[in-house]
Structure formats: C-alpha cells, structure tokens
Design goal:
Layout (H helix, E strand, L loop, with lengths): L4 H101 L4 H8 L9 E13 L2 H6 L3 H21 L3 E6 L2 E6 L7 H21 L1 H8 L7 E16 L4 E6 L1 H12 L5 E4 H7 L5 E3 L14 E4 L3 H5 L1 E5 L4 E5 L5 H23 L1
Length: about 375
C-alpha cells in the first residue's frame, strides 16, 4: 500500500527530530565530557603547579645546600690554614721559650730548674730549716795567679775549672748554690735528698773526685795557661741545720742556703791545707764508716764560741799507711807520721812520762 506524501513527510520529520535529538544528546554528552576533561585539566594543572613549586623548593634547597657545602669547605680550608699557621707559630714560640729557658737554666741548679719548670716548686719568697751538708772550695793563691795572666786567660781558665768541677757536682747530685769568683758553694739535701748520711757521703766523695780531677789536669793547666805551679784547691765541708729557700725581693730572688754551717764550711776551707778536704765533726760522724779520715787539732772559728774538732779526708793508700791510731776506753790518739814534727813527739813523750808518774804515785798510795 503506497504511502501518502504527507506520511512520507511525517516520517522524514520524525527522522530529522530523532537525528536532532541524537545530536543534542551527543552535544550534551560532549559538553559534559569536555567539562570533565576541563576539570581534569584544571586539576592536572594545579597538581603540575604544586609539583613545580615543590621542585623549585627542592632545587633551591639543593642549591642552598651546595652553597653551604661550598662555604663550609671554604671555611674548613681557612680554619685548616689558620690551624697550620697557629701550629707553626706555637712551634716557633715553643722553640723561643725553650731557647730562653735553656739560657735561664744556666743561672739555676739543674734540680731547682727542673722542680720549677715541672711545677713541683713555686717561685715564692719562702724558706725552710733542713739538715744539709755544705761544701765550700776555692783555688789556692788565685789572686796571685790572676795578676800574672791577661783577663781573657783568667776568664778561660776560671770557666774551664768551674765547668770541670760543676760536672762532678751534678754527677754526685749536689745543688750548686753559686760561684763567688774562684770559690764554689754547693750543698746536698735540698731540693732532693737521700737522707742526711747519704747526702754527706755523696758530698765528701764529690770532694775527693774534685781533688783527683785537679791532679789529672795539672799538665793541662800548665800547657794551656803557662802556670808555673799546678792549681790546687782547698775544701771545707760541714753538716748541720741550715735555712734554705728563696731570698730576695718580689722582683729578684736567689735560691740559696744560709746559717752557721755555711760559715763553718767556709772557715774550714780557709784553714785547710792545699789539696786537702777538711770536715767538721758532724760531717765526720756521718761518713766515718765509709771514708778514711784523720782527726786534726781543734781550731777556733770566728762566729763559733767553742773549739771545733776537724777531720781531714785520707785520699790515697800511701797517706793511709802514714796514719797511726791508738784507741782504748780512755785514750784516742791519731798521728800523721808524714806531718809529725819532732817537737810534737817530744810533747807526747813528756805527756806520757807525766801520766806514768801520776799513775805510779796513785798506785803507791
């Protein structure tokens, strides 16, 4: 059955309407999808912006860290250079201080120098009483010797002599107090001590070594300085309580020893025979079992009211053979046959004769 024209037109119209509806739906769907995509794009943009900001921050942080590392490396290099420079300066200053301290050490005894620089002893004005053994020596006839030599020769000779004696003093552990021209003052017992007895023995053995060294140098003195007579020294040694410590002002101190024993050692030295060692009784009592001595006559010493017993050290076997001793409960006699004079023998004979007469008289009563 054929359709009418109107029906055909209606169908076309319906088809167009469907097509329009479909297009409208598609446009709606497309618009909705485009909106979604737009929203997704906006969200992606926001995410991208956020990531970009984070990346910028990270890059800035890395750049800052790199700069800090660079600055730190530069600062560490500077500090290293400063440390090296400071170390070099410290070493230079240390060497300067050591050089100065080495110079100062020449003005102090080694024991005192060590105790001060190690911090064991403070440099204060103070003193203490201690039992010391004091040594005093000088060169016999030094004034006459010095008059016959030029000043350079005197200086050379004296320094050589003092050097040789000082070596021995240090070897035996003595504290060198001072040099007074050709005289030497040494003491044992401070700042270090091995006990009164051992200090005295060391001091006397040092004196013996000094006298032996003087004999060894006899030819050397003559050759170097043209001396007609060999140099000889006298030695006096005394043991007893002394005051030892730092004396002086706040600006200038002297570590020394003072007291009657110092004076006694000096007096004993002045009356000792050339080449001999004269001891006080207190020194002799400390060393008598170790070192041979002979008692000499008592002497009067300036500054001491009572007579002082004196003892001379026997330094060689030959001299020891010339010493005779007689010791009983009531008699103590020592004689040096080498020095004994005929008038002394006569006095002894008279004394014995007188003693015999008195004993005989006592017996007959």
């Amino acid at each position: 059955m054929s359709q009418t024209k109107e029906e055909v037109n209606v169908k076309k119209l319906e088809s167009e309407v469907k097509k329009l509806r479909l297009e409208a739906q598609l446009r709606k769907n497309l618009a909705s999808e485009m909106q979604k995509q737009k929203e997704i794009a906006i969200e992606a943009q926001e995410v991208a912006n956020a990531k970009t900001k984070e990346l910028d921050k990270l890059l800035k942080k890395q750049a800052l860290e790199a700069q800090l590392r660079k600055n730190l490396a530069s600062e560490m290099q500077k500090q290293k250079e400063i440390a090296v420079e400071a170390q070099e300066l410290a070493l230079e200053k240390k060497n300067e201080i050591e050089a100065i301290s080495n110079q100062l050490s020449k003005y102090l005894s080694p024991q005192l120098y060590q105790s001060i620089f190690s911090g064991e002893q403070q440099v204060d004005i103070e003193s203490k009483r201690k039992k010391l053994t004091v040594f005093f020596s000088d060169i016999v006839g030094f004034t006459n010797i010095s008059d016959s030599l030029e000043s350079e020769e005197i200086t050379s000779m004296l320094n050589y002599y003092l050097t040789e004696m000082s070596k021995l003093a240090l070897e035996f552990g003595g504290t060198i107090d001072k040099y007074i021209g050709d005289a030497i003052l040494i003491f044992f017992g401070d700042p270090e001590t091995d006990g009164v007895k051992e200090d005295a023995i060391k001091c006397v053995n040092m004196a013996i070594a000094m006298q032996s060294r003087m004999k060894e140098l006899e030819n050397e003195w003559a050759e170097k300085f043209g001396l007609r007579e060999p140099l000889q020294i006298r030695v006096g040694i005394s043991t007893g309580y002394c005051t030892v410590g730092n004396f002086g002002s706040e600006d200038r101190l002297d570590y020394t020893v003072i007291g009657a024993q110092v004076n006694l050692a000096s007096r004993l030295e002045s009356i000792a025979n050339p080449g001999s060692i004269l001891l006080s009784f207190d020194t002799y009592s400390q060393i008598s079992k170790e070192i041979n001595c002979v008692e000499l006559e008592k002497v009067r010493v300036k500054g001491i009211s009572q007579e002082v017993r004196t003892f001379e050290v026997i330094m060689d076997d030959k001299k020891a053979k010339n010493i005779v001793d007689i010791k009983t409960n009531n008699l103590n006699l020592t004689a040096d046959l080498e020095r004994l004079q005929i008038d002394e023998i006569n006095k002894l004979a008279d004394f014995l004769e007188e003693a015999r007469k008195k004993l005989d008289a006592k017996t007959t009563k």
